[in-house]
Fold:
Amino acid sequence: MINKSYLSNSITTQLSRDIQSIRERIDRTSSEAVTGRTADPTAHLSGQIGKAMVANDVLNKIDRDTSLLQIRESRLDITQQSLSRMQEGLAEISVRALDSLSAGSPVERTALAQDARAQLDSALIALNSRHGERFLFSGDATDKAPFGSPEDFMTDLRAIADAATDQADFDARLDAYFDLDTGDFANGFYRGAKTSSDGDAVTGLDPAIIRTLRNLGVLAMAGPGDGLDNLSTPEALGVISASADSRRKRHPAGARRHRAEQPGKGKGRAEQSAGRHDLPRPVRSRRRTESPRGQS
Structure:
Protein backbone atom coordinates (compact mmCIF):
# COMPACT_ATOMS: atom_id res chain seq x y z
CA MET A 1 0.00 0.00 0.00
CA ILE A 2 1.29 3.45 -0.90
CA ASN A 3 2.06 5.66 2.06
CA LYS A 4 -0.02 8.73 1.25
CA SER A 5 1.72 10.87 3.86
CA TYR A 6 5.15 10.04 2.43
CA LEU A 7 3.96 10.73 -1.13
CA SER A 8 2.49 14.07 -0.10
CA ASN A 9 5.69 15.13 1.64
CA SER A 10 7.78 14.13 -1.37
CA ILE A 11 5.62 16.12 -3.75
CA THR A 12 5.70 19.15 -1.43
CA THR A 13 9.46 18.92 -1.11
CA GLN A 14 9.95 18.68 -4.87
CA LEU A 15 7.60 21.61 -5.49
CA SER A 16 9.53 23.71 -2.97
CA ARG A 17 12.79 22.92 -4.74
CA ASP A 18 11.29 23.75 -8.12
CA ILE A 19 9.91 27.05 -6.85
CA GLN A 20 13.27 27.97 -5.29
CA SER A 21 15.04 27.10 -8.54
CA ILE A 22 12.62 29.24 -10.54
CA ARG A 23 13.13 32.18 -8.18
CA GLU A 24 16.90 31.88 -8.49
CA ARG A 25 16.67 31.84 -12.29
CA ILE A 26 14.37 34.88 -12.24
CA ASP A 27 16.76 36.79 -9.98
CA ARG A 28 19.75 35.81 -12.11
CA THR A 29 18.00 36.74 -15.37
CA SER A 30 16.84 40.06 -13.93
CA SER A 31 20.36 40.90 -12.75
CA GLU A 32 21.87 39.97 -16.10
CA ALA A 33 19.28 42.08 -17.94
CA VAL A 34 20.05 45.13 -15.81
CA THR A 35 23.86 44.87 -15.68
CA GLY A 36 24.44 43.24 -19.04
CA ARG A 37 26.78 40.76 -17.33
CA THR A 38 26.31 37.05 -16.76
CA ALA A 39 26.03 35.96 -13.15
CA ASP A 40 28.47 33.09 -13.69
CA PRO A 41 30.88 33.89 -16.56
CA THR A 42 32.72 30.58 -16.16
CA ALA A 43 29.58 28.48 -16.55
CA HIS A 44 28.36 30.69 -19.37
CA LEU A 45 31.59 30.05 -21.26
CA SER A 46 31.25 26.28 -20.81
CA GLY A 47 34.26 25.94 -18.55
CA GLN A 48 36.59 28.24 -20.48
CA ILE A 49 37.99 29.61 -17.25
CA GLY A 50 40.86 31.54 -18.85
CA LYS A 51 38.60 33.57 -21.10
CA ALA A 52 36.12 34.08 -18.28
CA MET A 53 38.83 35.47 -16.00
CA VAL A 54 40.12 37.84 -18.66
CA ALA A 55 36.62 39.08 -19.49
CA ASN A 56 35.77 39.54 -15.81
CA ASP A 57 39.02 41.42 -15.19
CA VAL A 58 38.26 43.81 -18.07
CA LEU A 59 34.76 44.46 -16.74
CA ASN A 60 36.11 45.13 -13.26
CA LYS A 61 38.64 47.59 -14.67
CA ILE A 62 35.87 49.39 -16.53
CA ASP A 63 33.86 49.63 -13.30
CA ARG A 64 36.86 51.05 -11.42
CA ASP A 65 37.66 53.47 -14.22
CA THR A 66 34.07 54.70 -14.32
CA SER A 67 34.05 55.21 -10.56
CA LEU A 68 37.34 57.15 -10.65
CA LEU A 69 36.10 59.32 -13.51
CA GLN A 70 32.96 60.14 -11.55
CA ILE A 71 35.07 61.21 -8.56
CA ARG A 72 37.32 63.30 -10.81
CA GLU A 73 34.30 64.93 -12.44
CA SER A 74 32.93 65.89 -9.02
CA ARG A 75 36.25 67.51 -8.10
CA LEU A 76 36.37 69.41 -11.38
CA ASP A 77 32.79 70.61 -10.88
CA ILE A 78 33.64 72.05 -7.47
CA THR A 79 36.84 73.61 -8.84
CA GLN A 80 34.98 75.21 -11.74
CA GLN A 81 32.25 76.55 -9.47
CA SER A 82 34.85 78.12 -7.16
CA LEU A 83 36.70 79.78 -10.04
CA SER A 84 33.47 81.00 -11.62
CA ARG A 85 32.37 82.66 -8.39
CA MET A 86 35.74 84.39 -8.12
CA GLN A 87 35.55 85.61 -11.73
CA GLU A 88 32.05 86.98 -11.26
CA GLY A 89 33.04 88.73 -8.04
CA LEU A 90 36.07 90.37 -9.64
CA ALA A 91 33.96 91.61 -12.56
CA GLU A 92 31.46 93.20 -10.16
CA ILE A 93 34.23 94.87 -8.17
CA SER A 94 35.83 96.23 -11.35
CA VAL A 95 32.60 98.00 -12.24
CA ARG A 96 32.27 99.36 -8.70
CA ALA A 97 35.87 100.62 -8.76
CA LEU A 98 35.37 102.48 -12.01
CA ASP A 99 32.21 104.07 -10.60
CA SER A 100 34.16 105.07 -7.51
CA LEU A 101 36.85 106.72 -9.60
CA SER A 102 34.22 108.60 -11.59
CA ALA A 103 32.49 109.88 -8.46
CA GLY A 104 35.73 110.54 -6.58
CA SER A 105 33.97 110.67 -3.21
CA PRO A 106 35.15 109.08 0.06
CA VAL A 107 31.76 107.41 0.40
CA GLU A 108 32.22 105.60 -2.90
CA ARG A 109 35.74 104.53 -1.95
CA THR A 110 34.50 103.19 1.37
CA ALA A 111 31.78 101.18 -0.37
CA LEU A 112 34.34 99.89 -2.88
CA ALA A 113 36.69 98.76 -0.09
CA GLN A 114 33.88 96.98 1.75
CA ASP A 115 32.71 95.17 -1.38
CA ALA A 116 36.26 94.19 -2.32
CA ARG A 117 36.89 92.80 1.16
CA ALA A 118 33.67 90.77 1.00
CA GLN A 119 34.71 89.36 -2.38
CA LEU A 120 38.20 88.60 -1.05
CA ASP A 121 36.73 86.67 1.87
CA SER A 122 34.48 84.71 -0.50
CA ALA A 123 37.38 84.00 -2.87
CA LEU A 124 39.58 82.56 -0.12
CA ILE A 125 36.71 80.43 1.16
CA ALA A 126 36.21 79.10 -2.37
CA LEU A 127 39.93 78.42 -2.80
CA ASN A 128 40.02 76.53 0.48
CA SER A 129 37.19 74.25 -0.65
CA ARG A 130 37.69 70.52 -0.73
CA HIS A 131 36.16 67.33 -2.07
CA GLY A 132 36.00 64.72 0.65
CA GLU A 133 39.33 64.99 2.46
CA ARG A 134 41.19 66.56 -0.50
CA PHE A 135 41.79 70.30 -0.72
CA LEU A 136 41.39 71.13 -4.40
CA PHE A 137 43.82 74.03 -4.81
CA SER A 138 46.76 72.74 -2.74
CA GLY A 139 48.61 70.90 -5.47
CA ASP A 140 50.06 67.63 -4.22
CA ALA A 141 49.60 68.72 -0.57
CA THR A 142 45.93 67.70 -0.66
CA ASP A 143 45.75 67.40 3.13
CA LYS A 144 46.50 71.11 3.72
CA ALA A 145 44.26 74.13 3.24
CA PRO A 146 46.03 76.20 0.57
CA PHE A 147 45.53 79.66 2.07
CA GLY A 148 45.54 81.38 5.43
CA SER A 149 42.93 83.84 6.66
CA PRO A 150 41.89 87.07 4.90
CA GLU A 151 43.07 88.98 7.97
CA ASP A 152 46.61 87.63 7.58
CA PHE A 153 46.60 88.51 3.88
CA MET A 154 45.39 92.07 4.51
CA THR A 155 47.96 92.51 7.29
CA ASP A 156 50.72 91.69 4.79
CA LEU A 157 49.34 94.10 2.17
CA ARG A 158 48.87 96.94 4.68
CA ALA A 159 52.46 96.52 5.82
CA ILE A 160 53.57 96.87 2.18
CA ALA A 161 51.42 99.98 1.72
CA ASP A 162 52.73 101.57 4.93
CA ALA A 163 56.34 101.02 3.88
CA ALA A 164 55.89 102.30 0.31
CA THR A 165 57.17 105.78 -0.54
CA ASP A 166 55.20 106.21 -3.77
CA GLN A 167 53.16 104.26 -6.32
CA ALA A 168 56.19 102.82 -8.09
CA ASP A 169 57.66 101.63 -4.80
CA PHE A 170 54.29 100.17 -3.81
CA ASP A 171 54.07 98.20 -7.07
CA ALA A 172 57.66 96.99 -6.69
CA ARG A 173 57.01 95.79 -3.14
CA LEU A 174 53.85 94.00 -4.27
CA ASP A 175 55.78 92.30 -7.06
CA ALA A 176 58.36 91.12 -4.53
CA TYR A 177 55.64 89.85 -2.16
CA PHE A 178 53.95 87.86 -4.94
CA ASP A 179 57.21 86.49 -6.40
CA LEU A 180 56.69 82.75 -6.79
CA ASP A 181 60.26 81.85 -5.84
CA THR A 182 61.09 84.16 -2.93
CA GLY A 183 57.92 86.08 -2.06
CA ASP A 184 56.04 85.74 1.21
CA PHE A 185 52.79 84.97 -0.60
CA ALA A 186 54.03 81.75 -2.22
CA ASN A 187 56.25 80.74 0.69
CA GLY A 188 54.14 81.77 3.65
CA PHE A 189 50.54 82.71 3.01
CA TYR A 190 50.13 79.87 0.50
CA ARG A 191 50.51 76.57 2.36
CA GLY A 192 49.98 74.03 -0.41
CA ALA A 193 52.47 72.41 -2.75
CA LYS A 194 53.86 74.42 -5.65
CA THR A 195 53.42 71.50 -8.03
CA SER A 196 50.63 69.08 -8.84
CA SER A 197 51.00 65.62 -10.34
CA ASP A 198 47.37 65.82 -11.48
CA GLY A 199 47.37 67.38 -14.92
CA ASP A 200 43.74 68.55 -14.50
CA ALA A 201 44.31 70.32 -11.17
CA VAL A 202 44.71 74.07 -10.64
CA THR A 203 46.93 75.18 -7.76
CA GLY A 204 46.53 78.32 -5.70
CA LEU A 205 49.66 79.69 -7.37
CA ASP A 206 48.10 79.92 -10.80
CA PRO A 207 48.96 83.42 -12.10
CA ALA A 208 45.31 84.29 -12.72
CA ILE A 209 44.36 83.35 -9.14
CA ILE A 210 47.27 85.35 -7.74
CA ARG A 211 46.28 88.34 -9.87
CA THR A 212 42.68 88.12 -8.63
CA LEU A 213 43.69 87.99 -4.96
CA ARG A 214 46.19 90.80 -5.46
CA ASN A 215 43.62 93.10 -7.07
CA LEU A 216 40.94 92.34 -4.50
CA GLY A 217 43.40 92.91 -1.64
CA VAL A 218 44.53 96.27 -3.02
CA LEU A 219 40.96 97.43 -3.64
CA ALA A 220 40.05 96.39 -0.08
CA MET A 221 42.48 99.11 1.10
CA ALA A 222 40.80 101.81 -1.01
CA GLY A 223 38.75 103.30 1.82
CA PRO A 224 39.78 106.56 3.51
CA GLY A 225 42.21 105.98 6.37
CA ASP A 226 43.31 102.58 5.06
CA GLY A 227 46.59 101.45 3.47
CA LEU A 228 46.36 103.40 0.23
CA ASP A 229 46.11 106.70 2.13
CA ASN A 230 49.88 106.43 2.58
CA LEU A 231 50.11 107.39 -1.10
CA SER A 232 49.18 110.72 -2.58
CA THR A 233 45.60 111.00 -3.81
CA PRO A 234 46.53 110.79 -7.53
CA GLU A 235 48.77 107.79 -6.83
CA ALA A 236 46.09 106.05 -4.76
CA LEU A 237 43.56 106.60 -7.53
CA GLY A 238 46.10 105.26 -10.02
CA VAL A 239 46.55 102.10 -7.96
CA ILE A 240 42.76 101.65 -7.70
CA SER A 241 42.37 102.15 -11.43
CA ALA A 242 45.10 99.64 -12.25
CA SER A 243 43.66 97.03 -9.87
CA ALA A 244 40.17 97.52 -11.29
CA ASP A 245 41.28 97.19 -14.91
CA SER A 246 40.62 93.51 -15.70
CA ARG A 247 42.61 93.86 -18.93
CA ARG A 248 45.82 94.57 -17.02
CA LYS A 249 47.98 91.48 -16.74
CA ARG A 250 50.69 91.63 -14.11
CA HIS A 251 52.53 88.35 -13.61
CA PRO A 252 54.65 87.78 -10.51
CA ALA A 253 58.29 87.07 -11.19
CA GLY A 254 58.81 83.40 -11.81
CA ALA A 255 55.18 82.82 -12.86
CA ARG A 256 56.06 81.60 -16.33
CA ARG A 257 58.85 79.40 -15.00
CA HIS A 258 56.53 77.99 -12.34
CA ARG A 259 53.92 77.05 -14.94
CA ALA A 260 56.54 75.47 -17.17
CA GLU A 261 57.70 73.27 -14.29
CA GLN A 262 54.18 71.95 -13.57
CA PRO A 263 54.12 68.24 -14.47
CA GLY A 264 51.39 67.28 -16.89
CA LYS A 265 50.64 70.85 -17.93
CA GLY A 266 51.35 71.60 -21.59
CA LYS A 267 52.88 74.74 -22.99
CA GLY A 268 49.67 75.73 -24.73
CA ARG A 269 47.64 75.85 -21.53
CA ALA A 270 50.29 77.87 -19.67
CA GLU A 271 50.48 80.42 -22.45
CA GLN A 272 46.70 80.70 -22.64
CA SER A 273 46.46 81.34 -18.90
CA ALA A 274 49.20 83.97 -19.08
CA GLY A 275 47.62 85.65 -22.06
CA ARG A 276 44.18 86.46 -20.67
CA HIS A 277 42.59 87.78 -17.52
CA ASP A 278 40.11 84.94 -17.05
CA LEU A 279 40.66 82.50 -14.23
CA PRO A 280 41.84 79.04 -15.35
CA ARG A 281 39.31 76.45 -16.39
CA PRO A 282 40.02 72.87 -15.29
CA VAL A 283 40.03 70.37 -18.17
CA ARG A 284 37.43 67.64 -17.84
CA SER A 285 38.62 64.09 -18.34
CA ARG A 286 36.93 62.24 -21.18
CA ARG A 287 35.09 59.10 -20.21
CA ARG A 288 36.56 56.17 -22.06
CA THR A 289 35.70 52.56 -21.45
CA GLU A 290 37.74 51.16 -24.31
CA SER A 291 41.01 51.82 -22.53
CA PRO A 292 40.54 51.89 -18.73
CA ARG A 293 42.99 53.89 -16.71
CA GLY A 294 43.40 53.63 -12.96
CA GLN A 295 44.29 57.28 -12.39
CA SER A 296 42.56 59.31 -9.69
Observations:
- The first strand starts at residue 130 and ends at 131.
- The chain has one domain: 59-274.
- Residues 59-274 form one domain.
